[in-house]
Amino acid sequence: LSYVAVGALIGSISGALTADDAEKIEETEAVLKQVLAGLNMQEALRKHVLSESRNRTKRAFVLLQEEGPRMRGETVDYNRLPTEGIETVLEVHVESVRLDGWWIDPSLSLLMTSRARLIRARDGTLLSEVTFPYRSEAQQLAGWAAHDARGFREGLKRAYESLAEQIVQEF
After folding, report:
1. Beta-carbon count within 10 A of 21 CB
2. Residue 30, H or E segment
3. What is the tens place of the pLDDT at every residue in 5-38?
4. CA–CA distance, 9 with 27 (Å, rounded to integer)
5. Which value, in Å, is the radius of gyration of the alpha carbons in the chain?
6. Per-residue b or e along 124-162, where b marks 16 or more CB atoms closer than 10 Å to that residue's CB
7. C-beta separation of 90 from 118 below 8 A
8. With contact defined as beta carbons under 8 Å apart, do 127 and 76 qualify?
9. 8 Å CB contact between 135 and 110
10. Distance of alpha carbon 82 from alpha carbon 5, whole angstroms
11. pTM of whole model > 0.85?
């Protein structure tokens, strides 16, 4: 899966912005978007789900290479998989990532949303579809971007871990 809606990374910031404030926010957003551009969020989530499944369940999860939809709403034909012993497919992907808060240089939380779909391989029947939210603890905008965006990178890692745990518990 290779799609994610990042949109305006820093959302819902309101208040009286000066030109300097707006410029600072734009610069910080550019740094954080650059971090996202260098990541494969879909692959990271899949690997976390696979790792979590190995640690927390007896079910056999297998990472299918080059399988799954390339864009939202695409239907994939998995009907050859039962011949390989695969009865169901769990599609997982990150739907959105953003920072959210209310005031200038506010405490912002990292929000990440993922979606998982369980599909019967032999006939493509959708068995279950669940959206999973993640919200981090808040920190100041400058904190997310400081030290080459270390806080943001660590926040993304925690988001993947939390979402993977939720997904494995559900399925």
Report:
1. 14
2. helix 19-37
3. 444 555 544 444 455 567 777 888 888 988 988 8
4. 12
5. 18
6. eeeeeeeebebebeebebebbbeeebebbbebbeebbeb
7. yes
8. no
9. yes
10. 32
11. no
Q: Give the residue carrying structure tokens 């959105």.
A: 96
Amino acid at 12: S
Q: Residue 16 and residue 104: Cα distance in Å, rounded?
A: 8
Rounded distance between C-alpha atoms, residue 47 and residue 76, angstroms: 20
Higher pLDDT, 164 or 27: 164
Q: Which amino acid is at 4?
A: V
Intra-chain end-to-end CA distance of the chain, in Å? 19
Structure token digits, residue 144: 């997310």
Question: Would you put residue 12 in left (φ > 0), alpha (ψ -120 to 50) or beta?
Answer: left
Paired tokens of 83: 């011949």
* Residues 160, 158, 100: CA angle, nearest 5 degrees: 95
Distance set, CA 156 to CA 26, 60, 63, 149, 152 (Å): 20, 26, 21, 11, 6
Instruction: Tell me the pLDDT tens digit for each residue of 128-156.
Output: 999 999 999 999 888 898 998 999 999 99
